[in-house]
Specification:
This protein is mostly helical and 141 residues long. The protein has one domain. The protein has a two-stranded antiparallel ribbon with strand order 1-2. It is globular. The termini are far apart.
């Protein structure tokens, strides 16, 4: 993990940043509505809207929770809080379809601050591509 005085926690993992931590705190009380809210903040943004990094971090964490709810991901490496949220959520097709709409927006370097910030690190885009594949596969079961 990388730590900075002004930024706090910042790393490529879906839960390895301050925005995701804030999202997880909110989601603990009401997982499905909190996940939907984080995803809709991206999905409902206009096509030319610029997505703030905090919005992107929460949306990535929400997408990962959706995938984990379907059993697509490694729950064993997740924190207790993430495991509990994923198990409580379970498979949710409406959220999966919404997450599939969100990832391309998050990868758009012209309209997504988080993609712009990670532009020099190919692991970020590779992670989002792998997450997109897991969410797609979850719908084939």
């Amino acid at each position: 993990m990388r730590y900075g005085l002004a930024m706090g926690t910042w790393d490529t993992g879906p839960f390895d940043n301050d925005g995701a931590a804030d999202f997880l705190d909110d989601a603990a009380a009401m997982p499905a509505p909190s996940i939907a809210e984080a995803l809709l903040a991206v999905a409902d943004a206009g096509p030319a809207a610029y997505l703030d990094v905090d919005v992107g971090q929460g949306a990535i964490a929400a997408c990962e929770l959706v995938a984990l709810g379907f059993g697509y991901g490694n729950l064993h490496e997740a924190s207790d809080a993430v495991r509990d949220l994923a198990r409580t959520l379970g498979p949710n097709e409406d959220l999966r379809v919404l997450a599939l709409r969100v990832i391309p927006r998050l990868r758009d370097r012209e309209h997504s601050e988080i993609a712009e910030l990670w532009e020099a690190d190919p692991s970020f885009d590779a992670f989002l591509g792998e997450l997109l594949e897991r969410l797609t596969e979850a719908g084939l079961d």
